[in-house]
């Protein structure tokens, strides 16, 4: 018969807990979240001697107070789920502080097996630990392990199973907290004698210790008991008495007592060299956090992370792009239509944008895993905390903000290094204000279109200015959020600077893969769905392009005739023909977009964005920009009938936008500001929603705040710009070329030009559409008054 | 008697008491900052805050605003 066991892994951060979990469970792990919170939960089932063992990795914690989510999760799991054994991973080279958690696990009544981890490092430092003696003193089994060398895992599991089965009994070693405190505790225990249910669950002593520590959660539970009035009075008395005797609060007396118990055990079972030599880690720290070198080294590390993420991440991104182009190409033979468009533009495009970010995310996670596992992340926070503290943030907020200059999606993931909920949320809220790489094409296009005549330095200043604006806004908003929405201090910056360690390849890769997989699983579906919705908005309903279609047929016919006619310069004709067809198709694309739901939304938006200098066409572009910010440029291209393949360097697009009298330099500035601030792209939004705990309240807040801020800032820019010599629009109507076929079908003139000599009449049934005789083909396309005047 | 933020890098002291309240006091206690515990200030961060101390054989960093709440008795070197 198979037995079922549950083993919980508990331990301090940096104790090597994750490595041991990976050693034990390996690829069989399951990553999810603890119910209701964003804290990651890892577990996995393994088999050993006919037993099914579920291994649950509890969040890393130094203590079991009610102050942090991680600690509450850990203690609730031990109390509610009653794991058969708690394996407590302890850093042997840092015993005293690590055993503080061990003592609290015992207070909870857990059966504890201590993994005396990194025992090799301790040994090297000359620390001699008598494991047998420690077992007796602590009342827990002790197994030496070296996690990163995969040593001691077998005996750890063996002992854990023995303890779980009751084959190995743990020594009776009551936790002794000094006579004074013990007397008070047994005095108070009398109150709980009748409360069997709660005492069986938590243990009387633990409840009373927590009550003296003023633990909110436990006080609430005790407050519901009938004995509470009497107990409450007695607790007050004990606190008063302790204050008289020790001149200190009950909670610090208890903490001191726990450390006292640990000190006693260590004195008995551990021999340490008296003089403390400088360790390797201390030597590294002398350089890395040096007064003069600290910041340059930090900058260099940051630069490396950036390079690794974006430069190397770009290579597989290119492969993926080519792959998706190839897949799209497979559908070329399919007849044009809604289905093909759905597959190519909607689905393949959507999957492409999900996977397009994947290399970036993996690279960032590799970089973060190395920084964290090596111990440098804590130093980075140590170095940057002064600056971030001024803004009301934590030193660890710096990294996500910088990553944001590359891409908002990995920046959102990078906030995971922040343990405190409030710090993390504020960082999440302001990180999208860092101008990501996808916004750059929009700036380049607009600067090129409207400020090309200004000196280069002016253009460069504009570009720098927009980035600086993002940083300033992030700082201001972080302060505002800290003061209003999430008041109070963030996590106290009381942080361990763990010894430097060599990250292991296995650890880094596993970590990276876990996170990457989570992105695909959690965000992938949403992004795909939004992408298809956006596609539908931009595609339906179609415009009535009957006139264009028939003209396209006409143009094709004339093309065939001209090629057949003698003396025609075939090359020039083909060039002219191709251009005309492209113009026609682009014009149809533009009309389709205008007629689509997105076009209607653009028109509905117009009254709201008019004060910013935009018309409905900019509205559509902004809507399209939700798919990805750089799409704003492509959408502009479509709207201006130049085709969606245009990029920011495209001269025709620049010229068209720049010459459009509806737009002005002031509007361009306002649009740059709006693009910087308004809501992040759909991929970032999907990831943001998951990472902020899938709480709609916060996601909607992000949408509202970014939109309002974008509007206000863009409005201000549009109206202040003229004061700086950047003029607003003149309101005359745009002249548009809506009949791109006209020039091509000017039969006699074009034919003449192509032959470059006088010719016979064309025999086709075509008639010139205009009586205009002047132009020669291939030059500029003139405007024609009105589309309805044809035929 | 002085407070921890007044100590210079290299100086040693014994903790007397953590004043103030709330989460940072609790966190300091959990990390081993308690009555009678010897500590040594190792360095300050390049920008002057926070500080890095050695306590119970490991490195702990904390802001000066929190160090201000830790009453210590200075111990002369040697």
Task: Tag the structure with descriptive keywords.
heterodimer, A: 791 residues, alpha/beta, 7-stranded mixed β-sheet, two-stranded antiparallel sheet, elongated, disordered C terminus, B: 78 residues, alpha+beta, 6-stranded antiparallel β-sheet, 41% strand, globular
> What string gives the helices and strands of chain B in order?
EEHEEEHE
Strands in their spatial order, largest beta sheet of chain A:
2-3-4-1-5-6-8
Number of strands of chain B: 6
- Helix amount of chain A: 55-70%
Total helices of chain A: the number is 33
Which band does the percent of strand residues of chain A land in? 5-15%
Radius of gyration of chain A from the CA trace?
35 Å
What's this entry about, in short?
The complex is a heterodimer of chains A (791) and B (78). Chain A is built from 33 helices and ten strands.
Can you offer a commentary on this structure?
The complex is a heterodimer of chains A (791) and B (78). With 791 residues, chain A is an alpha/beta fold. The model of chain A is unreliable at 731-735 and 757-791 (pLDDT under 50). The radius of gyration of chain A is 35 Å and the shape is elongated. Chain A contains 33 helices and 10 strands. With 78 residues, chain B is an alpha+beta fold. Helix content of chain B is 17%, strand content 41%. Chain B is globular and about 25 Å long. The two termini of chain B are 19 Å apart. At the A-B interface, helix 3, helix 12, helix 17 and strand 10 of A face helix 1 and strand 5 of B.
Which secondary structure elements does this structure contain, and how are they paired or packed?
The complex is a heterodimer of chains A (791) and B (78).
Chain A: E1 3-11, H1 17-25, E2 30-33, E3 40-48, E4 51-57, H2 69-81, E5 85-91, H3 95-107, E6 112-117, H4 119-124, E7 128-129, H5 131-138, E8 141-144, H6 153-165, H7 179-189, H8 196-202, H9 204-212, H10 216-223, H11 228-246, H12 250-269, E9 270-271, H13 280-288, H14 294-330, H15 338-356, H16 358-374, H17 376-390, H18 398-403, H19 408-414, H20 421-430, H21 440-450, H22 456-483, E10 494-497, H23 505-539, H24 546-564, H25 570-595, H26 597-609, H27 616-624, H28 631-639, H29 651-659, H30 665-677, H31 682-691, H32 696-720, H33 747-755
Parallel strand pairs in A: 1-4, 1-5, 5-6, 6-8
Antiparallel strand pairs in A: 2-3, 3-4, 7-9
Helix pairs in contact in A: 3-12, 5-12, 7-9, 7-11, 8-9, 14-15, 14-16, 15-23, 16-19, 16-23, 19-31, 20-22, 21-29, 21-30, 22-30, 23-31, 24-25, 26-27, 27-28, 30-32
Chain B: E1 2-3, E2 12-18, H1 22-30, E3 38-44, E4 51-55, E5 58-62, H2 64-67, E6 70-75
Antiparallel strand pairs in B: 1-6, 2-3, 2-6, 3-4, 4-5
């Amino acid at each position: 018969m198979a037995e079922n066991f549950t083993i919980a892994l508990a331990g301090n951060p940096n104790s090597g807990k994750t490595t041991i979990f990976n050693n034990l469970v390996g690829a069989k792990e399951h990553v999810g979240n603890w119910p209701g919170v964003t804290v990651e939960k890892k577990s996995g089932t393994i088999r050993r001697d006919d037993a099914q063992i579920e291994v649950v990795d509890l969040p890393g914690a130094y203590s079991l107070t009610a102050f942090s989510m991680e600690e509450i999760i850990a203690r609730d799991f031990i109390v509610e789920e009653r794991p058969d054994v708690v394996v407590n991973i302890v850093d042997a080279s840092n015993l005293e502080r690590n055993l503080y958690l061990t003592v609290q696990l015992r207070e909870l009544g857990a059966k504890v097996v201590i993994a005396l981890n990194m025992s090799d490092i301790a040994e090297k430092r000359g620390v001699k630990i008598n494991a047998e003696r420690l077992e007796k003193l602590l009342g827990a089994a002790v197994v030496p392990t070296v996690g990163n060398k995969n040593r001691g895992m077998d005996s750890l599991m063996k002992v854990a199973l023995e303890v779980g089965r009751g084959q190995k009994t743990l020594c009776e070693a009551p936790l002794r907290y000094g006579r004074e405190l013990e007397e008070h505790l047994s005095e108070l225990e009398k109150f709980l004698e009748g409360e069997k249910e709660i005492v069986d669950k938590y243990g009387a002593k633990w409840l009373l210790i927590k009550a003296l520590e003023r633990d909110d959660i436990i006080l609430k539970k005790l407050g519901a008991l009938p004995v509470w009035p009497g107990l409450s009075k007695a607790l007050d008395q004990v606190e008063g008495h302790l204050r008289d005797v020790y001149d200190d609060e009950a909670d610090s007396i208890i903490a001191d007592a726990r450390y006292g118990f640990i000190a006693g055990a260590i004195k008995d079972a551990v021999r340490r060299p008296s003089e403390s030599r400088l360790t390797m880690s201390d030597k590294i720290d002398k350089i890395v956090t040096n007064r003069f070198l600290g910041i340059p080294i930090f900058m260099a590390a940051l630069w490396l992370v950036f390079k690794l993420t974006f430069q190397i991440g770009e290579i597989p991104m290119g492969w993926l792009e080519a792959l998706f182009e190839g897949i799209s190409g497979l559908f070329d033979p399919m007849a044009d239509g809604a289905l093909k468009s759905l597959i190519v533009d909607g689905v393949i495009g959507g999957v492409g944008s999900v996977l397009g970010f994947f290399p970036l995310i993996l690279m960032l996670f590799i970089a973060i895993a190395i920084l964290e596992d090596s111990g440098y992340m804590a130093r980075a926070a140590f170095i940057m905390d002064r600056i971030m503290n001024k803004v009301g943030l934590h030193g660890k907020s710096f990294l996500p903000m910088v990553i944001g200059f590359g891409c908002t999606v990995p920046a959102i993931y990078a906030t995971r290094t922040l343990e405190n909920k409030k710090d993390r949320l504020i960082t999440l809220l302001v990180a999208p204000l860092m101008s990501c790489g996808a916004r750059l094409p929009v700036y380049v296009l607009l600067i090129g279109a409207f400020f090309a005549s200004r000196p280069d330095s002016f253009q460069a200043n504009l570009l720098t200015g927009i980035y600086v604006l993002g940083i300033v806004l992030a700082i201001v908003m972080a302060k505002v959020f800290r003061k209003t929405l999430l008041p109070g201090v963030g996590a106290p910056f009381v942080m361990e600077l763990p010894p430097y360690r060599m990250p292991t390849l296995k650890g880094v890769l596993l970590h990276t893969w876990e996170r990457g997989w989570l992105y695909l699983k959690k965000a992938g579906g949403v992004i795909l769905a939004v992408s298809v919705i956006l596609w539908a908005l931009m595609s339906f309903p179609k415009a009535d392009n009957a006139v264009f279609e028939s003209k396209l047929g006409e143009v094709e016919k004339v093309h065939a005739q001209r090629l057949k006619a003698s003396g025609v310069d075939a090359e020039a004709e083909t060039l002219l023909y191709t251009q005309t067809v492209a113009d026609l198709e682009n014009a149809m694309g533009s009309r389709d977009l205008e007629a689509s739901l997105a076009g209607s939304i653009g028109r509905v938006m117009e009254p709201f964005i008019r004060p910013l200098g935009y018309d409905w066409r900019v509205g559509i572009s902004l809507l399209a920009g939700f798919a990805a910010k750089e799409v704003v440029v492509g959408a502009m291209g479509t709207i201006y009938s130049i085709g969606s393949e245009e990029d920011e360097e495209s001269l025709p697009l620049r010229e068209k936008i720049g010459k459009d009298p509806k737009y002005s330099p002031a509007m361009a500035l306002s649009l740059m500001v709006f693009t910087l601030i308004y809501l992040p792209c759909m991929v970032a939004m999907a990831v943001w929603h998951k990472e902020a705990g899938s709480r709609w309240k916060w996601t909607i807040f992000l949408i509202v705040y970014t939109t309002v801020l974008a509007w206000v800032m863009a409005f201000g820019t549009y109206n202040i710009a003229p004061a700086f010599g950047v003029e607003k629009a003149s309101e005359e109507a745009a002249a548009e070329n809506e009949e791109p076929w006209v020039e091509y079908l000017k039969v006699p003139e074009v034919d003449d030009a192509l032959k470059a000599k006088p010719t016979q009449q064309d025999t086709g049934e075509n008639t010139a559409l205009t009586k205009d005789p002047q132009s020669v083909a291939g030059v500029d396309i003139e405007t024609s008054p009105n589309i309805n005047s044809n035929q | 008697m002085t407070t921890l933020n007044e100590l210079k890098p290299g100086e040693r002291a014994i903790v007397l008491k953590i004043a103030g309240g709330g989460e940072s006091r609790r966190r300091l206690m959990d990390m081993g900052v308690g009555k009678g515990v010897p500590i040594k200030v190792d360095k300050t961060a390049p920008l002057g805050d926070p500080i890095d101390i050695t306590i119970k054989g490991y490195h702990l960093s904390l802001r000066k605003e929190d160090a201000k709440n830790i009453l210590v008795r200075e111990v002369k070197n040697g």
